[in-house]
Amino acid sequence: MSSISLNLMAQAEPLQAEPVAADQLAQAASAHVGDSMSIISLIADASLTVQLVMLMLLLASLFSWSIIFSKMKSLRTETKMTAEFEREFWAGGSMQSLYNKWGAETVKSSGMSEIFVAGYREYQRLGERGYANNNDLLDAVQRAMRVELGREIDHLESQIPFLATVGSTSPYVGLFGTVWGIMNSFRALGMSTQQATVASVAPGIAEALIATAMGLFAAIPAVIAYNRFSYNVEKLVGQYEIFMEEFVSIVNRQLTIENRK
Questions:
Q1: Are 121 and 115 in contact (CB under 8 A)?
Q2: What is the pLDDT of residues 160-205, one digit of tens each?
Q3: How many CA atoms lie within 13 A of 117 on its CB side?
Q4: Span 62-76, mean pLDDT?
Q5: Dist CA 98 CA 101 (whole Å)
Q6: Per-residue DSSP letters for 93-148?
Q7: DSSP letter, residue 91
């Protein structure tokens, strides 16, 4: 009886060990799937084309953020300097002293002050030559200010079109990476002899969808910044144009007073 019972116990021990081994295998499989589904591993295991797409989107995003920070700072400074110049211009002081101050190279100028300096310089130059025709003098002053206005607009709008390009093309570049990654996943799945499961398809699709996420990550801030900067630039340009009209009116009034004398 004792030998029979020992044999039964020996046969029962492997049966009890099988569930433990199955649980260990399941835990190991889940740990492996978890490691393979991390963001870094998905990017590292992606195909070369998808990796190039991700790299391109990452560089575009970094360059966009550098433009955003630099443009935000420059527009804030420009708005502050414009307000300071307007306050001094309408304070009722002499335009000659204002020209001497803001025309000096040592003074940090704004777009509006540069337009004023260009117009007043032309007014002085033609006045010293003794222009008798006031209309010609006013036209020359307006042309000088218009030329300077064009330069200031180019300066304000510099690098902003790049944000529009990133905002409009990044989602499509990311979508290209997604399509390419999913195509590779299904092609590898078709060539595999194993049974198709969600666990086998999920990593390939996940790594492809990361490209779409990176495309949106690059596009959304660029679009928001482009719209904001465009509004600020249009606002400043509107202030410049209004100032030009007011300055020309002041010059015209001064010439009329001088002619009456």
A1: no
A2: 999 999 999 999 999 988 888 888 777 767 666 566 566 666 666 7
A3: 19
A4: 95
A5: 5
A6: --HHHHHHHHTSTTSPP-HHHHHHHHHHHHHHHHHHTT---HHHHHHHHHHHHHHH
A7: T
CA atoms within 13 A on the CB side of 118: 23
The pTM assigned to this predicted structure is 0.76
DSSP state of 196: P
Q: Cα-flanking dihedrals φ and ψ of residue 47, to 5°?
A: -70, 165
Is the pLDDT at 76 greater than 50? The verdict is yes
Instruction: Give the domain ranges of the chain.
Output: 1-36, 47-260
User: Per the structure block, which two tokens stand in for 193?
Assistant: 């002899």
């290209």: which residue's tokens? 176
Residue 8 neighbours by CB distance under 10 Å:
9
Among candidates 196, 221, 215, 229, which has minimal Cα distance to 76? 229
For tokens 């953020």, the residue is 65
List the structure tokens of 213: 């996420």
What does the alpha-carbon distance between residue 186 and residue 204 come to, in Å, rounded to a whole number?
Answer: 8
